[in-house]
Amino acid sequence: MLGVFSSEIVTPPEVLVAAGNRSPSPRTTALALMNRYIKSNLSPVSIQIGDQVSLAYSRQNASLLQPRPFEIDVGCRSFGVKDDIFCLFQGMLDNLGSLRQEYGLAKSSDEVMLVIEAYKALRDRAPYPPSHVVGHLSGNFAFVVFDKSTSTLFVASDQSGRVPLYWGITADGFVAFSDDAEMLKGACGKSLASFPQGCFFSTAVGELRSYENPKNKITAIPAADEEIWGATFKVEGPVVLAATVNQEGTPLLW
Question: What is the pLDDT of residue 231?
Fold first, then answer.
């Protein structure tokens, strides 16, 4: 999956900007990155939202140009849109059945529709801590949500990081998210990092946070020149399990 967003939607992380400036390497534009994704994946689907957002996904796990024969099967890639909320999702939720009941969804609803409903709960039922949107999702997953009505971006990765997710900055300053590190490396150079597991990024919040430990600070550590990444993000402080609540406000611990 691939999501590309202009600086009008999301401000490029300073540490990744600095990494690209510190160790200059070949980069390409957001358009070139999207074109490469479309050409190198089987049966791709792409969507353009104005001049600021491009989304693409393929249900196939294999890339035509960059095959990954040892890739672990962590569920499907999927895409959905409802009420101008777009969602790219990869992985599988272990508690999808119970969450369908909690959000009043049909039994046929998949993970991407569940994530959209969870995001709507965050947006429409304030105060509803952002950490609760992903804190009660159990399984292996990574997703990118874009709310066209508010121009809000919400991105998250699971606690184990089994579903890969990376983010970087293209030559023309777009922020890109993808599960394909090699593809982003070609477009972002050293302005590239692995998205930290157990964390979410929201333009409404304005920063990267841990949903397991929402009060703990996240530190960006510049990487050595020989490393593929421009930086590594780490959650500081002791681990404290985050409490979540269900639709009725009952506390839950996961």
Answer: 77
**Rama region for 230: left / alpha / beta (φ>0; ψ in -120 to 50; rest):** alpha
Per residue in 90-106, pLDDT (tens digit) is 999 999 999 999 889 99
Could you tell me which residues are beta bridge partners of residue 76? 91
State residue 246's pLDDT score: 43
Bigger pLDDT: 219 or 114?
Answer: 114
The answer to whether the bond into 251 is cis (omega within 30° of 0) is: no
Q: Dihedral of CA 78/151/194/56: which sign?
A: positive
The total of other beta-carbon atoms located within 10 Å of residue 240's CB is 12
HEC sequence for the chain: CEEEECCCCCCCCHHHHHHHHHCCCCCCCHHHHHHHHHHHECCCEEEEECCCEEEEECCCCCECCCCCCCCCCCCEEEEEEECCEEEEEEEEECCHHHHHHHHCCCCCCCHHHHHHHHHHHHHHCCCCCHHHHHHCCCEEEEEEEEECCCCEEEEEECCCCCCCCEEEECCCCCEEEECCHHHHHHHHCCCEEECCCCEEEECCCCEEEECCCCCCCEEEEECCCCCCCCEEEEECCCCCCCEEECCCCCEEEC
Integer-rounded Cα radius of gyration of the chain:
17
* Higher-scoring residue by pLDDT: 107, 63: 107
